[in-house]
């Protein structure tokens, strides 16, 4: 029984002593006051600072996004300008190609005309040479024919030449009349 009396007089090890309880409550209140007075405002200031940093970051992100959209619009505008410039250059190249083609065609036509004129000149020169040769031959034949018909020789060259020219002029006058 002795052990049960000792057990009643001794406090339970789980329950604090009343003095320790009061000191603990005062220490807790003091700790709560110090935390409330000094730590909580610092935590709130840090919280506000973090909120401001996050909001600032979001604002900067929005500004960066707006700047990126602005740059994208400028890029698209420049691309549209580049496309228009490319189309203009292609149109200019086509027009220049058409002009070069027209110039080449004009040069070719001029060359054809020049060659044709030279050919006509050569043809006229050949025709004149043939006419002269034919005149000479026809004149000689005419003189021989006249000598046979007349029975005498046309000895005078001036007379012979005048007779040949008269005969040929008469043939030329008759030739256009017969052609019509």
Automatic annotation (TrEMBL):
Molecular function per GO: proton-transporting ATP synthase activity, rotational mechanism; proton-transporting ATPase activity, rotational mechanism
Pfam families listed in its UniProt record: ATP-synt_B
Membrane-traversing stretches: 21-40
Record keyword Transmembrane helix present: yes
Name of the molecule in the record: ATP synthase subunit b
Function: F(1)F(0) ATP synthase produces ATP from ADP in the presence of a proton or sodium gradient. F-type ATPases consist of two structural domains, F(1) containing the extramembraneous catalytic core and F(0) containing the membrane proton channel, linked together by a central stalk and a peripheral stalk. During catalysis, ATP synthesis in the catalytic domain of F(1) is coupled via a rotary mechanism of the central stalk subunits to proton translocation.
One of the record's GO cellular component terms: plasma membrane
Membrane topology: Single-pass membrane protein
UniProt entry keywords in alphabetical sequence: ATP synthesis, Cell membrane, CF(0), Coiled coil, Hydrogen ion transport, Ion transport, Membrane, Transmembrane, Transmembrane helix, Transport
Source organism of the structure: Pseudonocardia thermophila
InterPro entries named in the record: ATP_synth_B-like_membr_sf, ATP_synth_b/b'su_bac/chlpt, ATP_synth_F0_bsu_bac, ATP_synthase_B_chain
